Amino acid sequence: MQSFQIESNQAGQRLDKFLRKLMPGAGSGFLYKMLRKKNIVLNHKKAEGKEILTVGDTVDFFFSEDTFNLLTGRDAMAPSDAGGKICSRVTEYLQAYETVKGVEILFQDENVLIADKPAGLLTQKADNKQFSLNEWMIGHLLMQGKLTEESLRTFKPSVVNRLDRNTSGLVLCGISLRGSQLLSRLIQERSIKKYYITVVKGILKEPARIEGYLKKDEQTNRVSVHTKALKDTSVIQTAYMPLGTGRDFTLLEVELITGKPHQIRAHLASIGHPILGDTKYGDSDFNRKYREKFGLQSQLLHAYRLEFPILSALSDLTGKSISAPLPAVMKEVLTYGNLEIERVERLHSGGFDQQNK
Question: What was the pLDDT predicted at 16?
Fold first, then answer.
């Protein structure tokens, strides 16, 4: 018999969901059959699979050790340099932690991690050849001792919101099951306010809230913005406030009211003010000028502030504002445009609210 005691990162989910994570080598039909035959029992009693697990529950498996290891994937473990055993995914996470550079952690507790992602880094992995922030974050937690190979079998921390590869800034990560569930709910309810800072072509003097209808072309991975509702369009809302103007550009703070793919980039481009460095929706001549002068490789769009509501859970974040510093290349462009960096960074911690006081 094999026995597994439920801890906090396994609690709060259905038994059958937990079993599928623990035993990836078993199909759902097999698992339900084992439950019916009482080869898998919960707290020493027959279970259906729909029971919600709580901390301290015990799940017993009446399998041979070889069968249990086969179904959980433990036979796939490979020897490590230290002479122990470590699964290939753990090796990948640790390699990502060593390889990926430029990530800064701005907040971490037992449930949530908030990272400042550099431009050029994927938020989540697109293929097997590239590391992403997600792998880096898990490697970081492994190095801290917050995760173990065993705990990764039934719960894997993950980023909760995504940024485009070439957008820098704040990314929310759930590092416990409770943290992941709470952050996902807050994002779904639009309870967390998200602010970006960006450099756009042309001069804007007044704040505005713009609306439109966004349509995505899955084949080209591009979106288009329309003034009227069409088939398969979604309503989008974006607010912006000028923080200063340079030679031929405006520094904007942007509040993402609705969160759709490429929304800020396409929405600003649709009103004639594309983001500097944006090769998909931007102005090629405008981009070329700054690429030649500053070596600009990505759009100057930075997710720089998150504002949390009053929360009954996640007490360390209740009512708090988390900000990420401006990227170095953005500071260079602003200095070139004769904007005072100190003033911008003061606004950076206040944004819309400070301007409206």
Answer: 94
How confident is the model over 271-312, as pLDDT tens digits? 999 999 999 999 999 999 999 999 998 999 999 999 999 988
Mean pLDDT of the chain: 88
User: 3-state secondary structure string, the chain?
Assistant: CEEEECCCCCCCCEHHHHHHHHCCCCCHHHHHHHHHCCCEEECCECCCCCCECCCCCEEEECCCHHHHHHHHCHHHCEECCCCCEECHHHHHHHHHHHHCCCCEEEEECCCEEEEEECCCCCCCCCCCCCCCHHHHHHHHHHHHCCCCCCHHHCCCCEECCCCCCCCEEEEEEECCHHHHHHHHHHHHCCCCEEEEEEEEECCCCCCEEEEEEEEEECCCCEEEEECCCCCCCEEEEEEEEEEEECCCEEEEEEEECCCCCCHHHHHHHHCCCCECCCCCCCCHHHHHHHHHHHCCCCCCEEEEEEECCCCCCCHHHCCCEEECCCCHHHHHHHHHCCCCHHHHHHHHCCHHHHHCC
Task: Answer for the pair 305, 324: CB distance below 8 angstroms, yes or no.
Answer: yes
| Pick from 135, 195, 133: nearest CA to 164 | 133
pLDDT in tens, 11-24: 989 999 999 888 88
Let me know: does 107 contact 113? Beta carbons within 8 Å: yes
Q: What is the mean pLDDT of residues 249-261?
A: 94
Block residue for tokens 């990836």:
24
Q: Is the pTM for the entire model greater than 0.85?
A: no
How far is the C-alpha of 17 from the C-alpha of 175, rounded, in Å? 18
- HSE, CB side, 13 Å, CA atoms: give it for residue 343: 10
The pLDDT tens digits of the residues spanning 201-231 come to 999 999 999 999 999 998 899 999 999 999 9
**Total count of residues recorded for the chain:** 357
